[in-house]
UniProtKB/TrEMBL annotation:
Catalytic class of the enzyme: oxidoreductase
Record domain UDP-glucose/GDP-mannose dehydrogenase C-terminal: where: 309-413
A Pfam entry, by short name: UDPG_MGDP_dh_N
Metabolic or biological pathway, per its Swiss-Prot or TrEMBL entry: Nucleotide-sugar biosynthesis; UDP-alpha-D-glucuronate biosynthesis; UDP-alpha-D-glucuronate from UDP-alpha-D-glucose: step 1/1
Name listed for the protein in its UniProt record: UDP-glucose 6-dehydrogenase
Provenance organism: Allopseudospirillum japonicum
A single GO BP: UDP-glucuronate biosynthetic process
Residues reported in the UniProt entry to bind NAD(+): T113, E147
Length: 439
């Protein structure tokens, strides 16, 4: 098929690479100033699989990058809108142009996370005066990508949510998605409005699970209960399962936050008084400072001029993104107390330095052990695999005080204590109150 994709989001880049890989001719349409960068270097992403696939398809000639104005003059069977959530105006404007095209059949796929009902409104723009039998259709194919493994997730989906209300359009998109849907039919077909709300509802449920387990973890500390045992017991119940049931120091991510905001706005707009989701978000923001609170208690509020090491800055492993990342709230709290912070992250150091250029209380280190020198504590914020089995004896020698505050519960408390460390996780059953300061 001839496919045009408009947008410079992760979703647009993944769709362009994936559809070109399966033999389609793909036009990736972007603003004029972005075209040269994409043509020469491919997408700016740390997802190596995506970057490699994108560049390979460019070399093959199946994927071309060009400005929107030029691409709209060419022929295509499918037009994909893969825009950011605040680009509804651009979607409306482009759809008006598509409506004026002389071709009789056109499938418009909305992958953007817009408000519920946007695909239906785009359909009205696309076919304002045509008969019901017109073969110009807007369908909703919500972006369910997970940053860090976006291309793999698209090409080997666990499920595909599709909002489609025209029989001919369903046949065309089934053919388009067939290479990614052959092993087992993962398509869940519904109306466009249903699909749009389903995407937001999934995010809301995942966020609720995360905040709920964090609430339980905070209670577990007070009750001297290990949340890991509680988590295993809960997850073993087939009605609950283990996914997104890991306590920690808060969740982040631009897409996650964007979807939650869209869902809460929809609930508020229609008078649903969404106290639940507002509480979920409030719990998460508080959780981002839990490691600071533990450090504050341990050192009995005396943090001025102390040095701490932080392992992990990205909001999740596999990405260099700091969008809504827990480290941002943590750094603000630490710096307010005059704490010197030394950070290691496998991918996100450039982003951190760009965000805080020449900050007097920030050092970034390419070696995780360098960050530990003379540290009064290690705070684990992102659960990169390279942190799971470190050289503990070397860590013990480098640190001034062997205090580990594990914001992702990746270490066995008894094991690290046996090695001479003082350890606090999230909900591991130990409170810092009334403990004697380590000397």
């Amino acid at each position: 098929m001839q496919i045009a994709i408009y947008g410079n989001t992760l979703s647009a880049q993944v769709s362009a690479a994936a559809f070109a890989t399966t033999g389609n001719q793909v036009l990736h349409l972007v603003p004029e100033n972005l075209g040269i960068q994409l043509q020469k270097h491919g997408p700016e992403t740390k997802e190596l699989a995506l970057k490699q696939a994108y560049q390979e398809q460019q070399a093959s000639g199946r994927l071309q990058v060009m400005p929107l104005s030029a691409g709209l003059k060419l022929g295509f069977d499918v037009f994909i809108l893969a825009l950011a959530s605040d680009q509804v105006a651009q979607a409306n404007a482009v759809t008006k142009v598509l409506a004026s095209l002389p071709q009789k059949q056109l499938l418009v796929i909305n992958q953007s996370t817009f408000a519920v009902g946007t695909s239906a409104r785009l359909q009205q723009i696309l076919t304002p005066y045509t008969e019901e039998a017109s073969q110009k259709a807007v369908v909703s194919l919500p972006d369910l990508l997970q940053e860090g493994a976006a291309l793999t997730g698209f090409m080997r989906p666990a499920r595909i949510i599709l909002g489609c209300e025209q029989a001919w359009a369903l046949k065309q998109i089934q053919a388009l998605l067939y290479p990614f849907n052959r092993r087992q039919d993962q398509l869940q077909i519904m109306s466009t409005r249903d699909a749009e709300l389903t995407k937001l509802a999934i995010t809301g449920m995942l966020a609720t699970r995360l905040s709920y387990i964090n609430e339980l973890a905070n209670l577990a500390d007070q009750l001297q209960v290990d949340i890991e045992n509680v988590r295993q017991g809960m997850g073993g119940d087939s009605r609950i399962g283990f996914e997104y049931l890991y306590p920690g120091c808060g969740f982040g991510g631009l897409n996650f936050a964007r979807d939650l905001d869209a869902l809460t706005q929809a609930l508020d707009t229609y008078g649903q008084n969404t106290t639940l989701l507002h509480q979920v978000l409030s719990i998460n923001e508080s959780q981002k400072e839990i490691l600071f609170r533990k450090l504050w208690q341990y050192y009995q509020t005396q943090l001025q001029d102390r040095k701490v090491a932080i392992w992990g800055a990205a909001f999740k492993p596999g990405t260099d993104s700091l969008d809504k990342a827990p480290i941002l709230a943590l750094l603000a709290a630490l710096w307010a107390q005059g704490v010197k912070v030394r950070v290691h992250d496998p991918k996100a150091l450039d982003a951190l330095q760009n965000l805080y250029p020449d900050h007097p209380l920030l050092e970034c280190h390419s070696d995780p052990y360098q960050a530990l020198q003379e540290a009064d504590a290690l705070l684990v914020v992102t659960e990169w695999k390279c942190y799971w089995t470190p050289d503990f004896p070397q860590m013990r020698e480098l640190m001034r005080h062997p205090l580990i505050l594990d914001g992702r519960n990746i270490y066995d408390p008894e094991y690290v204590k046996h090695l001479g460390f003082i350890y606090f996780g999230v909900g591991r059953g130990e409170t810092i109150k009334n403990r004697v300061l380590y000397e």
